[in-house]
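Figure 6 in text form: structure in, sequence out.
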């Protein structure tokens, strides 16, 4: 088995952790939490989504937040960019990296983005090209890369086809999402190791949900397969608004403790993460209740 000395991690609490919640957390509160995450050792933070606020009201302050980010810590900020309008807003922001997403399952892509997977690929191609020309980093994120809530197990061949298209059109990094937490360690290992072999110069990240308790096992399967990065959320917050049964990103404190017991360092302060398990959910209690306008 492979036990690397260090594993890269990214916090996704401020975007994925909040997007599915029926509350809006004030911008200054988010900035305060970002500063706490930086103090805990995070070097990569996914902080918002440039989606239309009528679809995801919790992200309605994306423009304001992106201008208030503390920029003197060497942290790489990332944001989800759904379309051309979102890209224009991203390029006006201080955020370093654009995450372009689609689903390996066309049924989920249709529910999430109201278009087929192939239609999304054609759109993302142009978005990646424009972002790269502007000197920003790009991530091609593949949701439902293992199992779809509507059509079941997603064939590896479809994931590879999408990944190849993204890489050939300039994506600097790939991300695979176990959107509903049903991937098994065997499946995670197979898909990630085959992609790592096919694209040896492209970093691969893994976004896991712990819906059925497979999270830590899948973390280890990803590490064995050569995954470069693991997404974490404080207190296990998160979920996808368009994927039934998707609650629960893998919990930062549990993952870091799991890794450290195997002498795999993350550079994070575990005691601070354990405190976050109590303080970050308070954001939801303090937030303003909001609803979609559609």
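Output sequence:
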């Amino acid at each position: 088995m492979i036990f690397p000395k260090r594993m890269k991690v990214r916090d996704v609490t401020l975007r994925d952790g909040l997007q599915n919640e029926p509350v809006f957390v004030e911008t200054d509160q988010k900035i305060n939490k970002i500063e706490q995450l930086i103090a805990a050792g995070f070097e990569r933070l996914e902080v918002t989504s440039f989606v239309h606020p009528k679809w995801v009201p919790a992200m309605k302050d994306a423009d304001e937040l992106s201008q208030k980010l503390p920029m003197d810590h060497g942290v790489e900020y990332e944001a989800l960019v759904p379309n051309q309008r979102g890209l224009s807003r991203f390029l006006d922001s201080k955020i370093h990296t654009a995450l372009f997403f689609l689903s390996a399952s066309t049924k989920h892509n249709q529910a999430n983005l109201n278009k087929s997977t192939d239609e999304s690929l054609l759109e993302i191609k142009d978005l990646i090209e424009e972002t790269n020309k502007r000197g920003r980093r790009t991530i091609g994120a593949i949701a439902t890369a293992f199992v779809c809530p509507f059509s079941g197990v997603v064939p590896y061949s479809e994931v590879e086809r999408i990944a190849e298209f993204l890489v050939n059109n300039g994506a600097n990094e790939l991300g695979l999402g176990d959107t509903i937490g049903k991937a098994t360690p065997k499946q995670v290992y197979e898909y990630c190791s085959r992609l790592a072999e096919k694209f040896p110069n492209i970093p691969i990240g893994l976004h896991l949900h712990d819906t059925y308790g497979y999270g830590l096992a899948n973390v280890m399967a990803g590490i064995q397969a050569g995954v470069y990065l693991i997404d974490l959320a404080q207190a296990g917050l998160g979920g996808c608004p368009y994927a039934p049964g998707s609650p629960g990103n893998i919990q930062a404190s549990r993952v870091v403790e799991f890794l450290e017991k195997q002498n795999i360092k993350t550079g994070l302060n575990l005691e601070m993460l354990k405190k976050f398990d109590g303080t970050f959910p308070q954001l939801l209690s303090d937030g303003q209740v909001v609803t979609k306008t559609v």
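Caption detail: The chain has a mean pLDDT of 93.
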